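Many introductory courses stop at the sequence. We go one step further.
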Amino acid sequence: QDNSFEQFIINYCNEKLQQIFIELTLKEEQEEYIREGIEWTHIEYFNNAIICDLIENNQTGILAMLDEECLRPGTVTDDTFLEKLNQVCATHQHFESRMSKCSRFLNDTSLPHSCFRIQHYAGKVMYQVEGFVDKNNDLLYRDLSQAMWKANHSLIKALFPEGNPAKINLKRPPTAGSQFKGSVATLMKNLQTKNPNYIRCIKPNDKKAAHIFNEALVCHQIRYLGLLENVRVRRAGYAFRQLYEPCLERYKMLCRQTWPHWRGPARAGVEVLFNELEILEEEFSFGRSKIFIRNPRTLFKLEDMRKQRLEDLATLIEKIYRGWKCRTRFLLMKKCQIVIASWYRRYA
């Protein structure tokens, strides 16, 4: 119920993860259809980039203003930090505070004067400003880093590279918020170079008990995890897509015209393949470089046909091998019989 600086930066990380989830699923999904020239009706979804900008913007972001308060001379308190937020973020649609003199929240008794509220992607969260400045100023000073770097234990030494005398930096050590923001940026950069798979866990109840299903709790999680938008995009779009070359290479054995070799362009080969298999036209679409398959059952059908075809080819190979082996043995026996008969006639 009481959220402070720690929960604020945790929720900031969650917002960034949700942002990259949107980028790599909903946005990328729809942009790929446009790139490939597929007919597509745009699905609306909420992009939480505006919330991330509220927190991490270098000039007007909450973390930037918190650092500015920590560095400026004079009396600095949590109240002066909140006052600064109220001046800069008063008109932001995802920021709420009773001290911002905004008529929308002046009479909001659920929002204390010493708090501010952010409308996150997952819902509204209220933060107590008490302790924000002190926790952000929780610095590891240079002399402590140098002392830890001089330790004989290799792991401890590796944890404090900034203590190396060869890398002395006279600048003020970064604040806790700045360090966390840098760590999140590194994480996002790393994730964007990968092809992540998402596993969404739904908690059925708060009691951690079996056979209890709290419908309201589950619906809330489905909404803030962005599953509704994802399902809408997936249902309106295509469940599977693949480049023409690997698709033809995998399924060419299902068509006499493409097996064992197809001499023309890969797209033409895939068109011939799907026409001969008599797959309904509404089940697939041809993009500029990929084949798009709408329903998983069509893909499962192709896989089942391929599996059966592999079994038939294995049987054919086995049959030919057995025939060759039997014929080779027969020819050898025939040759031996002729040799024996010729020698027998010579001495008969």
